[in-house]
Amino acid sequence: MADLDRIETLVRTGPDTVMGNYLRRYWVPALLESELPEAGSPPVRVKIMSEELIGFRDENNRIALIQEWCPHRGASLFFGRNEGEGLRCSFHGWMYDVSGQCIDMPSEPEQSRFRERISVISYPCEVRGGIIWAYMGPQGQRPPLPELEWSLLPETHRYCSMRIQESNYLQALEGGIDSSHVSFLHRDDLEKEPLFMAAKGNQYLRADTHPKFEVVESSGGLLIGARREAEEGYYYWRITQFILPWFTLIPPFGDHAMGGHAWVPIDDEHCLVWSINFHPSRPLTDHEIEGIKSGSGIHAALVPGTHKTVANKQNDYLVDRKAQREKLSYSGIFGVGMQDSAMQESIGPIQNRSREHLGTSDVGIVMARRRLAKAAIALRDENQKPPALDASSQKVRAASLLLPKGQSFAQGAEEVLVAGPDVMVATL
Ligand code: FES
Ligand SMILES: [Fe+2]
Prior knowledge:
Blueprint (H helix, E strand, L loop, with lengths): L2 H9 L6 H6 L3 E6 L11 E5 L2 E7 L5 E5 L13 E2 L4 E2 L6 E2 L5 E3 L17 E7 L2 E5 L13 H4 L5 E8 L3 H8 L24 H7 L4 E6 L3 E9 L4 E10 L3 E4 L7 E10 L2 E9 L7 H8 L27 H5 L10 H11 L16 H20 L8 H4 L4 E6 L4 H4 L16
Antiparallel strand pairs: 1-10, 2-3, 3-4, 4-9, 5-6, 6-7, 7-8, 9-10, 11-17, 12-13, 13-14, 14-15, 14-18, 15-16, 16-17
Helix pairs in contact: 1-9, 4-8
Bound molecules: FE2/S2 (inorganic) cluster and fe (ii) ion.
């Protein structure tokens, strides 16, 4: 497949697209659990892969995403009344349960059976790791729930935020696996950010801006190794995990809480950026949580009550030219998360890749595109089961460590790239 055809396939995720069909075979991180905190909570809007949906939790704590538009005359069910056994449209009172079935139609004669023929699209949801996950794929193909390490940790050991980004998910994901930008975009933040500072690896990151990339396929995605010069005879390796279809794990910085993302399409020009910090073996400290809540690290300060960022495209991300000039901030934009968002959005809603010039540091991006396209096309053409639906592909870790020169990174780090309570976290 020609490269640009592949890109066109990858960036379109609406219903009945190749990529959309593929992505719908996975559980989708759709809402924060706190958005539907209890039975009977008010319904919330969510858009995933160009489908406008409403999330609601019924009196039995069953959660579903249903289509936003009432099949009667199209009013938004966002304004519906959550009456426990179902969500009732505020226009003429038709009511739908979590399965999507219309269960009451008070505007029709009592003996009418019309309601039995009316239903809305409904996607089942489950809660794990503080997130409401939805399954939007065909019936009978629902995979087991995700087993990513962070999703299974106790609440005290993880923190998750979500923001809306004005860009296609693919260029956001590509930012997540491109570890060469850390030496530039984030270089002045490494010693300032509570979740990065004082990591020994920072000195290598700042000193060697020409990392060499090696990428190998893993069972569920890619291992993206970036090596930099370290003490004599050693390389400093940062190994990012890409787990199909949209998860990335950031190599750790010292013993700080680790980080990861999920990059989920809202529509072709917007995505949900899920940012997670977690520590496999200890609760996050108050200091870490304070930093996260204020929008530092991979998170961003949000306009209260929304998923919109305070710094955004309209205000040029509050760029501080003085800080940039005085070398206090490489980009002049505050916060690693916002720096990433700013760069990814500044590309445009969908990157015009016919104008790009990929270099040697972009090999991870090239391979991620191929891996995604291959999986989506194998599903379409051969009905091949998508990769990374199994726990072993998901229970993996990123790593940063020194390895002797000459040793392959995938072999040298093999034992620490697996997640598990007994596995040492490889941090530098
Ligand atoms: S539009 Fe919903 S009940 Fe009439
Ligand atoms: Fe970044």
